[in-house]
Structure formats: C-alpha cells, structure tokens
C-alpha cells in the first residue's frame, strides 16, 4: 500500500481541525458548567413545576395500533368494535394493540 504525500498532508490537516474543534467545544461547555445556577424559591416552586409537568404529560396525544393490520385507533373500545383483517400467521381476527404516546 502506497501513501502519497498530498494524501498524508490532507489527513493530518483534517485531524488537526477535528482536534481543535473538539477542544473549543469542551472549553465552551466547561465555561457554562462553572457558572452557578441562581434560581430563587420565589421564581418557581417544586409543586408548580410538578403540576406543570403533569399537565403536559396528560395532554400528550395517545393512540393504539394493531400489530397485525397496522390500523390506528383512538381508543381500545374503537378497536373492539372492528375486527382485524390481517391474514398474518397468529392473527385470530382480534386486534393485537400496541399503545403509543407522542413526545
């Protein structure tokens, strides 16, 4: 295997740029990590934070999808009202539902 001088130089220059970029990122992140966090108890309480997170989790849309026929249903009752039309092995005519929640 032969390695030409221009190829070797371009590889070395590329490696130097990668190392310098990585150093810049590390130095920048360290400067942010050293700053103290100043959040007074008057800004937000733990109860308020938990309540807000709980509300957001409850508002996330959710749905169910049959693993065999891939139909999507809003509720399990909706899936129970229709039969699975899949001809896949192991399909018994009933939906095999998988629960999904969007992020």
Describe this structure in words.
This protein is an alpha+beta fold and 103 residues long. The chain has a domain at 56-101. The chain has three helices and three strands. The chain has helices at residues 5-33, 46-59, 76-80, and strands at 62-66, 72-73, 97-101. It has a three-stranded antiparallel beta sheet. Strand 1 (62-66) and strand 2 (72-73) form a beta hairpin. The two termini are 51 Å apart.
Layout: helices, strands, pairs:
Elements: H1 5-33, H2 46-59, E1 62-66, E2 72-73, H3 76-80, E3 97-101
Antiparallel strand pairs: 1-2, 1-3
Primary descriptors:
103 residues; alpha+beta; 3 strands
Which ranges are low-confidence, i.e. pLDDT below 50, for 5 or more consecutive residues?
none
Measured between the Cα atoms of the first and last residue, the distance is: 51 Å
Oligomer: single chain
Shape: flat
Strand content: 5-15%
**Helix/strand structural class:** alpha+beta
Number of helices, where a helix is a run of at least 4 consecutive DSSP H or I residues:
3
Keywords: Signal
Signal peptide: 1-21
Region (Disordered): 78-103
Concise structural overview:
The protein is α+β, with helices and mostly antiparallel strands and 103 residues long.
